[in-house]
Design a protein that fits this description.
This protein is of the alpha+beta class. It has 2 domains: about 5-55, no CATH class; about 60-190, Creatinase/methionine aminopeptidase superfamily (Creatine Amidinohydrolase), CATH 3.90.230.10. Helix content is about 45%, strand content about 15%. The protein contains 6 helices and 8 strands. It has helices spanning about 5-15, 30-40, 50-55, 60-85, 95-105, 175-190, and strands spanning about 20-25, 40-45, 115, 120, 145-150, 155, 160, 160-170. A 3-stranded antiparallel β-sheet has the order 3-6-7. A 3-stranded antiparallel β-sheet has the order 4-5-8, covered by helices on one side. It has a two-stranded parallel ribbon with strand order 1-2. The longest helix is centred in the middle third of the chain and has 28 residues, at about 60-85. The chain is elongated, with a radius of gyration of 24 Å. The two termini are about 40 Å apart.
């Protein structure tokens, strides 16, 4: 196997006259089909045969993932301790928290980058799917409410993605009820036997 620049790939496609070429329509652009058709290739449509083998992790990948998660877990535990100390003071904002979790990951000495922009949602902002805090939307973390953090780190040996919902202060009866219903739903789903 070799890796080539895109222009080299297109040139290679042009050399397929009379050859059978497997193309996965779900992964390939119309341009690939156009170039192959113009070259006179016999196009065979089918699933990429490397998808399943690539999804199976080898021992090195598994060990790297474990190391990355252990390292990231330390950063997350340190962050959660800091959050438990700072949130009751009522001064933290969603942006403050994004900066803090990145700082705890940087302190590992191994962080290459974030997995994605952290989702830091206080109160109702935590309910928006894939919410991204801005200066305009930045909320303070209120007492007796929920806070959601979805974040992760990229390390040389693995990538993490961790979501935590944290109660700040004493949650209301309504919040406890909703949280309990979601928990019961997860437990019920975990017990379902699929064919």
């Amino acid at each position: 196997m070799s890796i080539s620049a895109e222009p080299d790939f297109v040139e290679a496609l042009k050399q397929t006259s009379g050859k059978r070429v497997l193309v996965d329509p779900s992964l390939s652009s119309a341009h690939v089909f156009d170039v192959l058709h113009a070259a006179g290739a016999q196009i065979v449509r089918g699933q990429d045969p490397t998808i399943l083998p690539r999804s199976l992790k080898n021992a090195v990948e598994i060990a790297g993932s474990k190391r990355a998660h252990a390292r990231d877990g330390v950063a997350l535990a340190n962050f959660l301790h800091w959050f438990d100390m700072e949130a009751p003071k009522g001064k933290l904002t969603e942006i403050d928290i994004c900066k803090a979790i990145e700082g705890f990951r940087l302190a590992t000495g191994a962080l290459q980058d974030l997995s994605f922009d952290s989702i830091s949602g206080a109160g109702p902002n935590g309910a928006f799917p894939h919410y991204r805090v801005t200066v305009e939307s930045n909320r303070r973390v209120d007492q007796d409410n929920l806070f959601l953090l979805d974040s992760g780190g990229q390390y040389l040996d693995g990538t993490t993605d961790v979501t935590r919902t944290v109660a700040v202060g004493t949650p209301s009866a309504e919040i406890k009820d909703r949280f309990t219903r979601v928990l019961k739903g997860h437990i019920a789903l975990s017990r379902v036997r699929f064919p």
